[in-house]
Specification:
This protein is 36% helix and 12% strand. The chain contains 15 helices and ten strands. Helix 7 packs across helix 8 and helix 8 runs parallel beside helix 15. The longest helix has 18 residues.
């Protein structure tokens, strides 16, 4: 049953955090010729022990470049992580960017100009195509993560942490957060929600104007198109993880046809799309749409509690599951404070920081730690005692039947295909 609601003004959210992962995996062509270069010499860590790292880090200032549009994330860095890092003799400064490409482009341009150890970027929150591009260009410091004591708290064989959108991590980045792509609906309006992605698309046709998605190459809009690719292909098992041109040519016509057919049923008849997850979240908050999506479901609890999202906001779990991925912290090869960046990353992987970050009242990011292996037992109990939510199910429920991410090489081509076949073809 669908009830028409008249949009009304809502008071502003205390924290505009709906777009926390925007830009982390955005696919874009970087204009620097260095992108295609093989990894140059001098991108391997030369520290012999963790004690050497800690000694070299004393007094250093680490500039962490990360998406700056999520005030809850910003507050966690400034008020929780930075003080903990300061206790280790390192100063942490957050450098906000609108897109992770900005940080990568800065690193590549500085290295092209001859910078080897005096770069302005010390640490980057990154994943996906940005990591792949930087790795291929030799932009990241490698062979350093194994020095960190707290890396032992993660599962060494967790494929989500050893491969980043199909690119082997190879000690060139350290895991920081897990994320689960999630659909969200207003249960006060949709009393009989769909249970599959095809059902979501059919629901949007039955109730025109009450659903939309961000325009790729926005991170959230981009992953939505990959979800639809899996659906029209009969499941993720039928789409090769490693990019294959023949598979692309065979599978994507059905994807773009499905999205083109859907467009007239979207908000504003698909004549325009939200630019990012923040704009999409505002449409949901203002009751202009009844079904939305996010890569940060843990933040939904606070969005409902502060009145930004409707009281009936609930997570929509799909029978076939949804895409899961992880995001990481990388150190540029020319970082001025590489030792300090390693200390920051090690602190960020501690039980205390992962616990604080996982708390919905702090940030609500899913931990990368292997909870079953944590000792003492009290540490496991602390994660189990995190506040439960009437909106968001536990991570083990949310990630059930999780779909793997495609290799990063798929992403820019799918985004370009959407622009030329769906947006330009309307």
């Amino acid at each position: 049953m669908h009830l028409a609601l008249t949009p009304r003004r809502r008071r502003g959210s205390r924290r505009a955090r709906a777009g926390m992962l925007v830009g982390l995996g955005t696919a874009a062509a970087l204009t620097l010729s260095a992108c295609a270069a093989p990894a140059p010499e001098g991108t391997r860590s030369t520290f012999g022990s963790w004690a050497d790292v800690v000694s070299a880090a004393q007094g250093q200032t680490v500039r962490l470049w990360m998406y700056g549009g999520d005030t809850q994330a910003n507050a966690y860095i400034d008020e929780v992580l930075a003080p903990a890092v300061a206790a280790e003799g390192v100063t942490l400064e957050r450098v906000p960017v609108t897109d992770t490409r900005d940080a990568l482009n800065r690193v590549l341009s500085e290295r092209q100009a001859g910078s080897t150890d005096d770069g302005t970027v010390d640490l980057v929150w990154v994943n996906g195509d940005n990591f792949r591009t930087g790795k291929e260009a030799g932009a990241w410091l490698c062979d350093w993560t194994g020095l960190m004591p707290n890396l032992a708290l993660t599962r060494a064989d967790d494929p989500l942490l050893t491969n980043d959108f199909g690119t082997p991590v190879d000690g060139c980045e350290a895991p920081w957060c897990k994320a689960q792509f999630t659909f969200v609906y207003n249960s006060d309006v949709i009393v009989d929600p769909p249970t599959t992605l095809e059902g979501v698309l059919e629901w949007s046709r039955a109730y025109p104007g009450r659903f939309t998605y961000p325009a790729p190459p926005d991170f959230t809009g981009s992953v939505f198109t990959r979800e639809v690719l899996y659906s029209v292909s009969g499941g993720y098992e039928n789409v090769p993880v490693v990019f294959d041109q023949a598979a692309y040519d065979a599978l994507t016509p059905a994807l773009f046809d499905r999205l083109s057919d859907l467009a007239p049923s979207l908000w504003r008849q698909g004549s325009t799309y939200p630019a990012n997850e923040q704009e999409l979240g505002k449409l949901f908050a203002d009751r202009q749409i009844d079904l939305t999506m996010t890569y940060g479901p843990a933040t939904l609890t606070d969005l409902v509690e502060d009145g930004t999202f409707p009281p009936g906001t609930r997570v929509l779990t799909l029978e076939e599951g949804t895409v899961v991925n992880a995001s990481f912290l990388s150190i540029p090869a020319n970082a001025a404070s590489s030792a300090g960046a390693m200390v920051v990353t090690n602190v960020a992987l501690s039980v205390e920081q992962q616990l604080a970050k996982a708390n919905p009242t702090t940030w609500g990011q899913f931990t990368v730690l292997d909870r079953d292996a944590l000792t003492p037992e009290e540490d496991r109990a602390k994660f189990d005692s995190l506040p439960s939510s009437p909106v968001v199910p536990p991570y083990d429920v949310l990630s059930r039947n999780a779909n793997p991410e495609l290799a990063a090489a798929w992403v820019p081509l799918l985004d370009e295909g959407w622009l030329t076949s769906v947006l330009a073809g309307k």
